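Subject: mismatched residue count in predicted assembly?

I count 608 residues in my input, but I want to confirm that the predicted structure covers every chain. Input:
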Amino acid sequence: MSLDRLIEGIKKTKNPTVAGLDPKLSYIPEYIKEEAYSKFGRTLEGASEALYQFNVGLIDALCDIVPAVKPQAAYYEMYGWQGVRALKRTIVYAKSKGMFVITDGKRNDIGTTMEAYASAHLGEVDVEGTNFEAFAADALTVNAYLGTDGVKPVLNVCKKYDKGMFILVKTSNPSSGELQDRILDDTKTIYRTMGDMCEKWGEELPGKYGYSGVGAVVGATYPEQLGELRKALPHTFFLVPGYGAQGGGAKDVLPAFDENGLGAVINSSRGIMCAWQKDPSLDPRNYAQAARNEAVRMRDEITA
Amino acid sequence: MSLDRLIEGIKKTKNPTVAGLDPKLSYIPEYIKEEAYSKFGRTLEGASEALYQFNVGLIDALCDIVPAVKPQAAYYEMYGWQGVRALKRTIVYAKSKGMFVITDGKRNDIGTTMEAYASAHLGEVDVEGTNFEAFAADALTVNAYLGTDGVKPVLNVCKKYDKGMFILVKTSNPSSGELQDRILDDTKTIYRTMGDMCEKWGEELPGKYGYSGVGAVVGATYPEQLGELRKALPHTFFLVPGYGAQGGGAKDVLPAFDENGLGAVINSSRGIMCAWQKDPSLDPRNYAQAARNEAVRMRDEITA
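Triage response: the counts match. Full output below for your records.
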């Protein structure tokens, strides 16, 4: 009824990281693309098949040492419904390999519509008395600009299906401060106010390791705010993007963790997916091994 | 390079409304569902086919009197990639009938990822030198909690493909004020600050009717704020949800319009889709005619 399964995966692998699966065609070795195109053409379907096969290789190479994957919905939607099918297949495959799956969709809407998103991405949907899983990830990222109405339906689905969510608090991008750093008339920042709301919403989804099912997205690119929020939000687990390609380093993510080394999972997307492209002498067929090597390096750097 | 095509549709039909296509199975007449299930089973695919056929009937009945449709992405994602395929088919069909299509996805993310969403929902995507349309609506709703980085890529795609966007400013739901009504230390509300950002972003997408390609979502359920924002944001076109089922009436949406009766498009979803269910004596095969009657009633009420 929370993010406990993620925390257990982190404990088991001794690795508080998540591999972002944000595949662009340019990240994928030619041999995978050519095989997909030979079956489905140089089409949205062919591209989507390449995405999926690339992910399968990564998941196989990472599943015993990395506890979670985070597919970014945008990179699948880019290839149409065919890409969205590749997202579903990726989620199913990663779960079959024991990984915790966080769909990064940053979904948000009014209550009735948010019920539909929660059913789609975390729960089940009823068709004439039979329940189907539309996507059924383990957690979903959520944008809470609309307030409690847009979070409550996700809380309900998380309770029922033992799932979790991560709410955008302080994002990793350069312009995140334009709104999020603005000071309210009670002298708190907007991001801090959003963080406090996460603590409150999380009371409905308590977890056995002290962290609730309502996590927060806090970027590695703002280490000071990361430390401030870690202290202020003792029950809120952090999903930390921005490590690696976006500029955050191992020192920057340290403030995300509590005294037991828990409390956060650090995401790397391009660093892991594109590791094979950094060594021009590497046979592209070893892309997954290169991803595994980078994941080990990242784990060791962060847990050092 | 803006929302001009929407405005022209409104002028032509003399109807500043948009029909929300947020189909739930319970809104769809049995005969449509049974036909879909007989072909594809009581499955996600069967449900998605029913959604699409229901939409086709509505679009046929509305396309000469209502200028635009607004499919809500959540209700399609709920039925998996099969539902997302029904979304794509709906967009293609509505465009073929001359309607302006607003995908209500409330998408948001950091810059690189937002590029992917903009390509997916408004632009084109390249597969080895050939361009494909993934969804290619005419406009997309956007949540700008992440600031300019998350809007800029959408602006670029709108420029290139003559599309528009609507940014969440003051949403229609009961808890919208939790964050959006909070006062910043310069004494402005957050929603007003977001509105001011829309005006600024809109400078890059000027339109020939005085309204830019960056619109704003402002709920009919908060008429006072609607009037405040209409005065404050002279170049920002409003997409106004909350009329009908959510409680907003014709008087509530009046403040959304400028002195020429332009400046806003009012959405009705359940009111139009479920019109046939209000009259138990109606043959469900006439659901589309009932939707048309309700759309005419709404148009006349709003333009009175």
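The first strand of chain A starts at residue 17 and ends at 21. Marking this ticket as 'not a bug'.
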